[in-house]
Please model this.
Amino acid sequence: MSIATINPFNGETLQTFTPLTGKEIEQKLALAVSAFEDYRLTSLEFRGEKLFKAAEILESNTEKYAQLMTIEMGKPIKQGIAEINKCASVCRYYGENGAKFLTPKYIDTDASKSYVIYQPLGAILAVMPWNFPFWQVFRFLSPNLMAGNVGLLKHASNVPQCALAIESILLSAGFPEGVFQTLLIQSSQVESVLRDSRVKAVTLTGSELAGKNVASIAGDKLKKSVLELGGSDPFIVLDDANIEEAAEVAVMARILNNGQTCIAAKRFILHNAIADKFQELLLEKYQNLKMGNPLDNTIDIGPLATPTICQEIANQVKKTIEMGAKSLIGGKILNGKGNFYPPTILTDIPVNSPGMSEEFFGPVALLFRVSNLKEAIELANKTLFGLGASIWTNSEENIKIAVRDIESGALFINGLVKSDPRLPFGGIKQSGYGRELSIEGIQEFVNIKTVWQK
Model:
């Protein structure tokens, strides 16, 4: 895939970029190493101040950066503005809490003094996706720059201007040159960068295949890796839930970012007693969704990021229907310009169909029915993924069982699954490993060094 800005609303190519040459990559790696030698000695106060300044720049230019995201990957503009504000919040979070998270920990032993310190590793490679082109990067860079590491960003090839804008923000905030660099490279160039001994670790958010490839290379070179991969999150609604509230949240949980979210609710698992009512409410709300130009503030759903993604979701829906599923709304790719796929609800999902086993990365809700909590959890866990999950119930006993038995990196009870700087984020099974955000996130890429003094 070429590195280019192609507006998903109309297919217009706005700008193309030439990938870095081997010589240019070498220069950037050398700069990263040089920058780290000085940056690792800076104070936590210095790093925090720069993160606060980055937050100010983001908040002063929310519309500008939101529009850039919308033009490059089709995110509704109002959601883009929220994303920029969230990036500012994670900068402030680590600016305020990073020093506490990295405070040496003293432990009583047979030594006169023994303690644990947290030291930066060096240059960390981040391979980031297009669906949240600012947030995914800032949730990586905020803890890592606070910890004293330096960052190298390989962003998705369809959001190059977002990648360059992020580097510019950090330079304007006062971070030294080379502390954070964007590498405009193709996927085929990632392996040589990751294998370079100057790169100390890697984090990736993306597909299972990309995660396996990166993990394999990192493992071969014995480098730490963190992976946040796909998800097919269950949204369980039991018979004692607030059905109206659950249905209201269900719409946003499925169509946020045009349905292109790893932690989107994708499989709606409904107790038989409330299934008809929930389905009726969801259908009504889907019928009222407005699709169109994502730069329009009134739009709920914009185009999918690329024609390939649009065709993939269309093929999954088509095959699932051919195998016996029913479509309550949508179900067919739209003709005309733009990568538009309509809000779709599928019921009666057949066993072994894509709707039962695959991740649907678009505005498609998959509805299932169960008789009790045990069946709901069994179906929720019947997936290779384990990123997020939500359950709607007012029973403390149901909650206790769900917390114990649902296989996921996060479980939200009577609420929308979302990432929060204050809480660790990540998955299990084929949704990846490691954690981002909170104290766990900042301690992923540090040397946890034991010091023992007689």
User: Anything to note?
Assistant: Residues 77-101 form the longest helix (25 residues). DSSP finds 15 helices and 18 strands in the chain. The two ends are 58 Å apart (CA to CA). Residues 3-228+429-453 form a domain with the Aldehyde Dehydrogenase; Chain A, domain 1 fold (CATH 3.40.605.10).
